[in-house]
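Predict the holo structure. Ligand: uridine-diphosphate-N-acetylglucosamine.
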Amino acid sequence: MPGGTTVLVTGGAGFIGSHTCVELLDHGYDVVVVDDYSNSSPGALERVAKIAGRPPAAVYEIGLHDRRALSRVFDEHAIDAVIHFAAKKAVGESVDLPITYYDTNVGGTTALLRAMHDHGVHRLVFSSSCSIYGNAARVPLTEADPADPTNPYATSKWLCEQVLADTCRYLPELSVLSLRYFNPVGAHPSGLLGEVPRGTPGNVMPYLAQVAAGRLPQLRVFGGDYPTADGTGVRDYVHVMDVAEGHRVALEHLDDEHGMRVLNLGTGQGTSVLELVAAFQRACGTPIPYEITDRRPGDVPALVADPSAVARAWNWTATRDLTAMCEDAWRFQELNPSGYPA
Ligand code: UD1
């Protein structure tokens, strides 16, 4: 029961974290946020409070490596469950800074596990990624498909899953749900909360939004010769509101069984870059200039979820379609051309 239930959200000011905070507050949970603002800002949490009508119970500006400060958070709040988003997530950057990625993502996760264990907290929802599947031989992908991470970011998520699974093996009181998201995009329908990339966006949806707004001249479509229907990369875009809802529903299922469970979070619907451009044009009402260029190193042709395991386990599916993803992303771009106020 949410009433009086306190959830610690690491990375709660980030893109998926902030939307999840709204979802939790809307459903009666008390929320404690830990964020170092390394790729986010307090402005996101002000928006969270505005949308939900109440703020998180507490916000701590700390990194997970600050073990003393993290331990104090657990001392000060009766944490019932943890949702762990705080991590670095840029694939290209991870190739240049592998140690940083392992230190932050894997080291951050073990520091969190340590604090949880020391304080008798045994329930965790972990933010994992479809990038773990790497060069998929075929799509859609089930959770039983083999891992083949192709960059340090993806490997760091895979290593976290291994650490969590092994820890669960030896600590039977632990319950972990690892959610492998496909490509989260979109924004809160209010236009108040969305994705605020630092500098030029690396991901396609915020890039499209900035081209549509005239802030960037054109989209470069990375590769037109993939073995896909139109030659461009295919992804399973999933609305961030569905991803947020998925985390809230995950909390309700943490006690279904002990141990580690892995679930895909996607729609099962593959969309090519050109199909995404067409959908975004319809949403914003202006043509999006693009040119097809070389493939981006490290990209894979197609990643699409088989979402049936989560549907079976929770009787839950993602419901928002590509039109909603584009319209909501565009609304956020229009209302917040420079992101959140400083
Ligand atoms: C990657 C990671 C994913 C991670 C996400 C967020 C992989 C396989 N996937 O997703 O786990 O959660 O980043 O950081 O490691 N594209 C263009 N032009 C652009 C940008 C992208 O054509 O300017 C294309 C890409 O080639 C790809 C699609 O758009 O086909 C999606 O790219 P992007 O939004 O960057 O996400 P992924 O690389 O799929």
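DSSP finds eleven helices and 14 strands in the chain. The pocket of uridine-diphosphate-N-acetylglucosamine is lined by residues 89-91, 129-131, 154, 183, 202-204, 207, 219-222, 233, 235, 273, 296, 299-300, 303 (CB under 6 Å).
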